[in-house]
Structure formats: C-alpha cells, structure tokens
Please model this.
Amino acid sequence: MSANAPAGSAAVIELRGVSKHYDNGAGMLQALKAIDFTVHANDYVALVGASGSGKSTLMNILGCLDRPSEGRMHFNGTPTQDMGDTELSRLRNRHIGFVFQSYSLLPKLSALENVAQPLVFAGVGQGKRRDMAARMLEKVGLADRARHYPSQLSGGQQQRVAIARALVNTPSVVLADEPTGNLDSASSRVIMELFASLHGEGQTIVMVTHDASVAAQCRSQVEIRDGEFVR
Ligand SMILES: Nc1ncnc2c1ncn2[C@@H]1O[C@H](COP(=O)(O)OP(=O)(O)OP(=O)(O)O)[C@@H](O)[C@H]1O
Ligand SMILES: [Mg+2]
Model:
C-alpha cells in the first residue's frame, strides 16, 4: 500500500513491495508487509506508529543499514538490491545522514572529532575535516562546545552533535529515528527549530516520532501499524 501521493519533485528513495521478515526463533515475524513508499526531494515526513509497528525497521532499510527481505528499492534512481556491502556503505556515507535515537557518539572523541568522523571514511584531509566539522557545529549552535567530550554535554547538545555529524557530508536525505525521544521539551524545541531551518534550506528529512506535537511540525505524516501504512 502506498502511504504518500506522488509529489512534483524528484524521488530520492523509492520502495516498492518491500517486506522484512525476522526469524525470532518461534517463527517468522513480518515486520514490514509489502510497503510502497517514496521520499521526494525536500520532503519533511513524520513517521508515526505504536511501539513495534516497524518504524525503525523501515528507517534502517531507507538508510541502507539493512536490506529488505523482498521488494525493490531505488536510491536517486539507482536500484540498491544488486549492490554489495561495500557499494552500499559508500552510498550511505555519501548520501545518507542517519540520526540515531541514542546519539551514538564516540565517547573518546571530542564534539568536533565526532562530527568529522564521516569525513575520515570519505577520505577528506585533516585540515578540511576540521573546517567542515567546525562549520557544522556552528550551524547547530555548538561552536563553543567543539572541544567538549560527549559526557560533558547535555542530552540536547549531544543530539545536536549527532545531527551535525549526520549533515557534515551534505547528504541527500536525513533520516532521524526519534531525534527528540530522550529530550526535555526545551531541548526538543531547539532540535525541531534546527530541522525546520534545514527543511527551509531544501534538505530532505524523514523523522520517526512518538510525539504528536513533534509530528505536527513536520510537513506531512505517515502512520505505520503492524508493518503496513494506515491510510
Ligand atoms: N533484529 C530483529 N530480530 C527479530 N525481530 C526484530 C528485530 N528487529 C525488530 N524486530 C521486531 O520487528 C517488529 C518491528 O520492530 P521495530 O524496531 O521496527 O519497531 P518500532 O516501530 O521502531 O518500535 P519502537 O517505537 O518501540 O522503536 C517488532 O515486533 C520487533 O520485535
Ligand atoms: Mg524504533
């Protein structure tokens, strides 16, 4: 079932008939059931649904962190099913900014070094890495925290570092799984203002949220229930 009508702009990610099964020991669990979903350029989509409905499973597939069990996926018009793991991680590094619910910053690296990390994999030289990471930290309002370690930052600041890290490679799409999930309402507001301004600059964003007031701030909403979209 298709959750979203085609828009005028180009498709960044297209899923057709995508299913995901997990073998949980007692049998097969269908986490996603023949999903059709298109993310268009400059979309700002909230993905909502109950716990266990398949939101993270879908995000992980959109972000090429996981592969569908069945179905087809295109990224910027290129089919992904025939790509090997190396090719897929290169695509991820170049085109996808993933924000995890738990920040997942490296504790022994400073804020600046965390933000610069994807550029190491992309083969960018050290000086340029520092400049690009510093610019991103400035963009998320943390220029004065560049040398701080994750343990010296608040939850909201850590999440902003994680967002800066997701953005540093100028990705085609930002995928954020519960980016405000662990935050108080003030920090959550700062994060949502940041996403709104990124969207205003043309960034494509898909965000998972449990919070109806957060979802209402996105441009469109899709709801998933038991691995299927709800119309
Ligand atoms: N690696 C896995 N192995 C087996 N089952 C899994 C695995 N990952 C997820 N599942 C199952 O797939 C279903 C969907 O899980 P998923 O993590 O996508 O839900 P979710 O909507 O993100 O939930 P939440 O809001 O709690 O984060 C659940 O029933 C879950 O138990
Ligand atoms: Mg989840």
